[in-house]
Amino acid sequence: MSIHLKRARAILKSFARQRILVVGDLMLDRYIYGAVSRISPEAPVPVVHVNRETSMPGGASNVAWNVQSLGARAEVAGLVGKDHAGRELRSILDEGGVSTSGVMDVAGRSTTVKMRVIAERQQVVRVDFEEKDGLTGPLQARFCRQVAAEVAQCTGVIIEDYGKGVVEQAVMNLVLEVARQRGIPVGLDPKDGHELDISGITVATPNRKEAFGIAGVKDPGATKEPLKDRALLDVGHRLLEKWSTELLMITLGPQGMLLLSKAHKPIHVPTRAREVFDVSGAGDTVIATCVTALATGASHLEASELSNYAAGVVVGKLGTATCTQKELVKYMSDQLATA
């Protein structure tokens, strides 16, 4: 089972007509690259000699970056602090063509930053700077008005919940209501431990750990064949019932993904990755590709297949990465030729 390349090209061509809003926790990903040649005399830790630094959009802003890279128009709605990191993130997004009209600058709030130190292609340590205060009162009301205006101009919405305080129930209710009125798809990348009523969501994309955590079930471990993994299937059906979602995509790392819906039997889509260097951001690529494809009118299976191929592209790159249409088409062509 696989999407035909001709059909994939047709769907991807329609991406240019899509306008996808990403609502959620915005972050700045900083990468410090270097080399290790000795252990510190101060503590049993490696000494990294830095040779370069770079910054990239992270969190919800990385999902928007993925949407933009795939050829659609991307917008973000979220919060940043009135600080250097917030200005840097805005600048990166603006230069990349991602609309930041839905971003609010909040005095007294720090922009979330995740700093990773990488040596010899290996991550040595990650340092997080973040706040998790939720939206309340006038600030929440103002943000909801801003989000409503953005949703009204889009063909699809992605909600990225990292538990940093932006995705609260009021925001979720508003997005679902406006999207329902407009008949556009809404995708959610859920956060384990943050309970929300998301009844009526179009697609949810938890990974295996998140799925079991949200369902409140202990994971006994993966079996060789996902379609015979009784624990996984049971959790999937529990979430389908709990969320009333049209499509549930449980990402399974090297095993690909499991698709569940009330209309069809479970489907296993095997991984399309040739070589895995870094899984950072693969989930962002999956939901960006899926919702954008659904916005074009692609079927659940077509959107899932495209997402799986796109994930295969990004895990072959180091660091939080994106996938372009050109890379996706070439990767699909190479994969299908050797199938």
Descriptive report:
This protein has a single domain (5-26, 59-110, 131-337), classed as 3-Layer(aba) Sandwich (UDP-N-acetylmuramoyl-L-alanine:D-glutamate ligase). 37% of the residues lie in helices and 27% in strands. It has helices at 5-13, 60-69, 84-95, 137-151, 169-182, 208-215, 230-243, 282-296, 300-314, 325-337; strands at residues 19-24, 26-39, 46-59, 73-81, 99-106, 112-119, 122-129, 156-160, 186-189, 203-204, 247-251, 257-260, 267-269. Helix 2 packs across helix 8, helix 8 runs antiparallel to helix 9 (300-314) and helix 9 packs across helix 10 (325-337). The longest helix has 15 residues, at 137-151.
Sequence stretches where pLDDT stays below 50 over 5 or more residues: none
Amount of helix: 25-40%
| Helix and strand composition category | alpha/beta
Q: What is the domain total for the residues? A: 1
The helix tally amounts to 10
Fourth-level CATH superfamily = Ribokinase
**Distance from first to last alpha carbon:** 11 Å
Series of secondary-structure elements, N-terminal to C-terminal: HEEEHEHEEEHEHEEHHEEEHHH
Q: In this structure, how is the largest beta sheet organized? A: 9 strands, mixed
Strands, total number: 13
Strand order of the largest sheet: 5-4-1-8-9-10-11-12-13
CATH class: Alpha Beta
- The CATH topology, please? UDP-N-acetylmuramoyl-L-alanine:D-glutamate ligase
β content, as a range? 25-35%
Instruction: Tell me the radius of gyration.
Output: 20 Å
CATH-level-2 architecture: 3-Layer(aba) Sandwich
Q: Mean pLDDT score, rounded?
A: 90
